[in-house]
Amino acid sequence: MRLRFNAGWGRHNALLRALGAPRGLVFSVLLWETTLEVGLGILLGVLLGWGLAAAGSGALGERLGFYLPPPQLSLDLLARAFALLPLGILAALPPAFQAMRESPLEYL
Q1: Orientation of helix 23-64 relative to helix 85-101, angle to 10°
Q2: How high is the pLDDT of residue 32?
Q3: Which phi and psi angles does 74 have, rounded to 5°?
Q4: DSSP state, 102?
Q5: With a cut of 50, which residues of the chain have pLDDT below it?
Q6: What is the torsion angle, in degrees rounded to the nearest 10, for the CA atoms of residue 61, residue 66, residue 68 and residue 69?
Q7: Contacts for 17-25 with beta carbons within 8 Å, 24 or more apart?
Q8: What pLDDT does residue 83 have?
Q9: For residues 73 and 50, is the Cβ–Cβ distance under 8 A?
């Protein structure tokens, strides 16, 4: 997860607050952004991992001289991977609370 409180995010947060956005909106924007990032990361990780494993099993099987079955992409695997989503949201709670409490004057 990338560091949230760099100068760009602080200015963005300050602009939202200066334009009249309530603290709850800043909090929810940060959580939604984190949810999208974590979800896309999980999805891309599973798809790229599956693709590389499928390509590698064929290449390694040819090189070693025996058949390696391609990996199976099942709903059970996807469910276990997306079980990480709540952990990503939990990790975003402290920065979201900090963004909610910050004064917009610090960054303007």
Answers
A1: 150
A2: 92
A3: -110, 165
A4: S
A5: 1-2, 4-5
A6: 130
A7: 17/104, 18/104, 18/108, 23/100, 23/101, 24/100
A8: 92
A9: yes
Angle among Cα 22, 27, 29 to the nearest 5 degrees reads 95
Residue 13's pLDDT is 79
Q: Is there a contact between 31 and 90 (Cβ–Cβ < 8 Å)? A: no
Is residue 67 within 8 Å of residue 61, measured between CB atoms?
yes
* Separation between Cα atoms, residue 23 and residue 13, nearest integer Å: 10
pTM score: 0.75
Q: Please give the single-letter amino acid code of residue 59.
A: A
Instruction: Report DSSP letters for 33-85, one per residue.
Output: HHHHHHHHHHHHHHHHHHHHHHHHHHHHHHHHTS--PPPP--HHHHHHHHTTH
